[in-house]
Amino acid sequence: MTPVDALERVVHCLDRAHDTGFKAKAFVRALEVVRALPPNELVARSAAGTLTELDGIGDSSATVIQQALAGGVVAYLAALDAKTQVPLSPAGAVYRAALRGDLHLHSRWSDGGATIEAMARTAIALGHEYMVLTDHSPRLTIAHGLSAERLAQQLADVAMLNEQLAPFRVLTGIEVDILEDGTLDHGDAILSRLDVVVASVHNKLRMGGSEMTERMVRAIANPNVDILGHCTGRLLGKREPSLFDPDYVFAACSQFHTAVEINCRPERLDPPRPLLQMAIEYGCFFAINSDAHATGQLEWQPHGCDRAAEVGVPLDRVLNSWPVDELLAWTADQ
Length: 334
Ligand SMILES: [Zn+2]
Ligand SMILES: [Zn+2]
Fold this sequence. Notes:
Number of helices: 14
Order of helices and strands: HHHHHHEHEHEHEHEHEHEHH
Distance between the termini: 46 Å
Low-confidence stretches: none
Largest sheet: 7 strands, parallel
Shape: elongated
Structural class: alpha/beta
Radius of gyration: 21 Å
Helix content: 40-55%
Number of strands: 7
Strand content: 5-15%
Bound molecules: zinc ion
């Protein structure tokens, strides 16, 4: 394991533990420093004990680098790896074992922290056969949402990457914003080119319940929309769920074949259990999605798997447990 490998793995483990504090930022910085440094200098400084003289290398990162260069076990990493395993119940494990992919994740093209390739290689290591790249749409300027031009560039990059990563598949997609009137932040010509479209509400989450219901149903009914992302928009301990009539929303999801996302981000865990139960009763399909913005966050699917098991989501209605061809046939038809 090279120092870069070791530091990348440390960052990955901190990501999956949802650690966004000082320590995590320091390791990200250390990784940047080490990547930019000539390997000879790294070895020389490690031997001389002068790593910490480099701006951005602290005691912990210096220890990781030294242990990686020594070729043995990187003790700091081993302990962190053990401590940050994502818990999974035995019932949830049945769902996790059935998952073949992840249908909602971000890269550096929008507000993610990793390249498409890094996300794909992590997905492969997690046993996935495919992933859908769903960076943000232009309205979300804060997240560097993709214009039509940038999306076209991304599709070209994805095509090249797919040649390298086969048989793994990076499917094309987007997390498109549901605008205030229920229209979407890209037109049909663009959306119909993509394999999978996730549509989510990201702004004006506090509008009245009947307006929000109309807004969501209009998006759900759009034939290009395949998945309704994090439907209530809640952030645990920070933001209450949006108000909408779940009978209309889930009936529309069922009617128009738009799957309900089970969002696995620990601060979201959306939808809440009672709504998930209703969606099951309406005959909806589901997608257990990490909504990862970093490689470590791709490991969050167990959160949604546990939830799916708790409320009894029928496994055959979970889109990302299907082989890729079945998934693509479903998203193309519906
Ligand atoms: Zn979102
Ligand atoms: Zn997202």
